[in-house]
Amino acid sequence: MTETILKVDQISLAFGGVKALTDVSFDVNKGEVFSIIGPNGAGKTSMLNCISGRYRPNKGAIHFDNTDVTNLRPNDRADLGIGRTFQNLALFGHMSVLDNIMVGRHHLMKNNWLTGPLYWASPAQREELTHRRQVEEIIDFLDISHVRKAVAGTLSYGLRKRVELARAIALKPKLILLDEPMAGMNLEEKEDMARYILDLNEEFGITVVMIEHDMGVVMDISHQVMVLDFGKKLICGLPDEVMADEHVRQAYLGLEENEQLQEVG
């Protein structure tokens, strides 16, 4: 029996007179990869921002792991187990890869300004060593050990994407929100990232909600796919069901036109 980990109920969001989302509802089951697709301006990133707490919807409710998180701050949602990456990289370019990932562990550390001066004489040192060991495991998992000491801003775009994913994993999330994790990557980098997302989902048991424009990847690794159209839900279902929908095929995937061109050729 499937268990719902995220429930989005009748979410609406507007900026002035512009409606970004209108009465969008969907459920994400625990342990699945749930993808959101649609053209630019469809409201995909706005939806992730509502789930993560960056935006507060004008209407509706969001429940995560049986808790109403609609009015919680992003940090409070992270404490409950919601992590995310961004469409535009949000790394600290002047810091090392290791230190960037350690930032993701910060909210899990008990050390504070009171224990800080007593660092070497308190459990804080042992706590940091424990966190560093767990970060090293994430580094190994994502095959970035060779750049662990490199300055993040000097890395290639594909590697920086991987570092940002590592930082999100370091939060120990139950749910991770991925905003175009493969944008700007070449074919080999996309294949690697798809494999990491699958392993993240299957081996770590992390539920994934992902925005992605590469339809081949979306259809290959997703359990459910939702299509947004000008801020409204067009369809939500199994990848094959979404692919078979005529409106989706014509307006978003362009399959009918491609098929006609192949027949003419």
C-alpha Rg, in Å? Answer: 20 Å
Strand order of the largest sheet: 6-7-8-3-9-10
What is the beta-strand fraction?
15-25%
Number of helices: 10
Low-confidence stretches: 255-265
Taken from the alpha-carbon principal axes, the silhouette is globular
CATH fold annotation of the largest domain: Rossmann fold
Describe this structure in words.
By secondary structure, this protein is of the alpha/beta class. The chain has two domains: 174 residues, Rossmann fold, CATH 3.40.50.300; 80 residues, no CATH class. 38% of the residues lie in helices and 23% in strands. The chain has ten helices and ten strands. Strands 6-7-8-3-9-10 form a six-stranded mixed sheet, sandwiched between helices. A four-stranded antiparallel sheet has the order 2-1-4-5, covered by helices on one side. The longest helix has 18 residues. InterPro entries: AAA+_ATPase, ABC_AA/LPS_Transport, ABC_transporter-like_ATP-bd, BCA_ABC_TP_C, P-loop_NTPase. Keywords: ATP-binding, Nucleotide-binding, Transport. GO terms for molecular function: ATP binding; ATP hydrolysis activity.
